[in-house]
Design goal:
Blueprint (H helix, E strand, L loop, with lengths): L3 E2 L11 E3 L1 H6 L10 E3 L8 E2 L33 H18 L6 E6 L1 H13 L5 E5 L2 H13 L5 E5 L16 E5 L1 E2 L4 E2 L14 E4 L16 E5 L10 E6 L1 H9 L13 E2 L2 E2 L14 H16 L2 H22 L3 E3 L11 E6 L2 H4 L3 H17 L16 E4 L6 H25 L1
Parallel strand pairs: 6-7, 6-8, 8-11, 11-12
Antiparallel strand pairs: 1-4, 2-3, 5-13, 9-10, 12-13, 14-15, 16-17, 17-18
Helix pairs in contact: 2-6, 7-10, 9-10
């Protein structure tokens, strides 16, 4: 992939500009001529634009070079229960296991309704046997709290919370209780630093929503009993399908515990007190999209070709590194997650702080960020980067493995330009 460049007429010396030749060479192209320059002056549009402006946090950018031809071998018009249908579903499971290094005695299944469906399936099927510690530091974690407290109506519940940009006190987790948490906060840009806080001799289960972490972060499988995610995040796949990964301890819970509430068909993982093993061999509960299955197979093969999990992690960390270098030099931008130890490399949440922005009301701050988002979309350089609606006013850049670091680097000067444009327009209107 290479960067797109817009012609610009510059006068005077070149002391106020930087060459983008280094970024272009990262894309595989030749060094740029001197006339292709990146302008430091925030009042002037940058000349380089990302080739792929898709920085949405879900659905996320397709892998570099993706096109419809990648789906040519899809089993369209065939039953998902046919030999070819089941073989492709099983292939997704097998390639996933190999890429992620999931232990052989863990089950991997494809389930309905994306990560939300997978995680709710786990909660509805397993919680209630013990007290529960719920960790919440962002919107989706807070949603799981609502499910457990208001829908399942469990009584023995502790909620360990933290504000956006921070993480809950992990040391307060009781290993005798079940633990529900997000590995990476998609809406807050905060992740758990590792799995060291989870006891090896825990009595409770750990239920981990890893949808914006898996394939971009190294998950400690020995510490996770239930892990869920969806294809449309780091893999850049299509939505509607969830992945459910169960440890032997989770299977034991399923086979020994019967919840007190009715279980919808799409949540049923057992029959006659035994795990429905077919779910973990490609026999899905409901009908999957064979087009989406082919698409995720393409993404998995691409991941294998770029160095597997380590390659995927490196690509994501390169995106965070690019943003970090820019933030360090910025006079207005910072990270919502101030602590680098818990800062996400996928959902990179940017906050603003300068005398002008700090003087705005909360509503005006949100309006300013919305305007920046709209301005960049109108320029065709970034789509869907406004912060999550419940999070503090800011921007959210997806830095998963399908995003090229060169595209991320090309975007950053545009953030400066757009911020300057909005600041100027609102200051003049005041």
């Amino acid at each position: 992939m290479c960067l797109n460049f817009r012609a610009a007429t510059l006068s005077g010396d070149n002391s106020s500009v930087d060459s983008f030749g280094e970024i272009h060479s990262v894309c595989g192209g030749p060094p740029l001529p001197n006339e292709w320059l990146h302008v430091k002056d925030d009042t002037m549009k940058p000349t380089a634009t990302p080739c792929a402006p898709q920085f949405s946090s879900g659905p996320c950018a397709k892998r570099p070079g993706w096109g419809p031809a990648a789906l040519a071998d899809a089993a369209l018009g065939r039953s998902h229960r046919s030999k070819i249908g089941k073989s492709k579903l099983k292939e997704v499971i097998d390639r996933t296991r190999a890429l992620l290094g999931v232990p052989d005695n863990y089950r991997i299944g494809i389930v309905p309704a994306s990560d939300t469906g997978a995680f709710e399936m786990a909660m509805w099927s397993m919680l209630g046997a013990r007290g529960v510690d719920l960790l919440a530091w962002e919107s989706f974690g807070s949603g799981w709290v609502t499910d457990v407290v208001k829908q399942l109506k469990l009584e023995d519940v502790r909620v360990l919370e933290a504000d956006y940009g921070q993480i809950a006190d992990l040391s307060a987790v009781d290993p005798k209780r079940d633990t529900v948490f997000t590995f990476n906060g998609t809406t807050s840009g905060v992740r758990v630093p590792n799995g060291d806080w989870i006891a090896d001799d825990r009595e409770g289960l750990t239920l981990c929503d890893a949808t914006s972490a898996v394939f971009a972060m190294d998950l400690p499988w020995d510490k996770l009993d239930v892990t869920t995610y969806s294809w449309q995040k780091v893999l850049g796949g299509e939505g509607a399908h969830g992945m459910l990964i169960l440890s032997p301890r989770a299977v034991e819970r399923l086979e020994s515990y019967v919840p007190a509430w009715p279980m919808p068909k799409i949540f049923r993982l057992t029959k006659g007190g035994k795990l429905i093993e077919g779910i973990f061999k490609g026999e899905t509960i409901n009908t999957p999209s064979m087009l989406a299955v082919e698409d995720v197979l393409d993404a998995l093969k691409w991941a294998e070709g770029i160095g597997g999990l380590n390659g995927m992690i490196a690509r994501s960390e390169a995106n965070l590194a690019a943003v970090s270098a820019w933030v360090e030099k910025s006079d207005w931008a910072g990270f919502l997650a101030a602590d680098p130890a818990v800062r996400s490399s996928t959902s990179i949440c940017i906050s603003a702080s300068d005398p002008w922005f700090d003087g705005l009301s909360e509503d005006d701050q949100r309006a300013a960020m919305k305007q920046i988002d709209a301005l960049l979309e109108s320029e065709g350089v970034a789509f869907d980067i406004n912060g999550y609606r419940d999070a503090p006013a800011g921007l959210r850049l997806w830095g998963g493995a399908t995003v090229e670091a060169a595209d991320m680097e090309a975007l950053l000067p545009w953030l400066d330009w757009a911020y300057g444009q909005v600041k100027q327009s609102k200051s003049e209107a005041a």
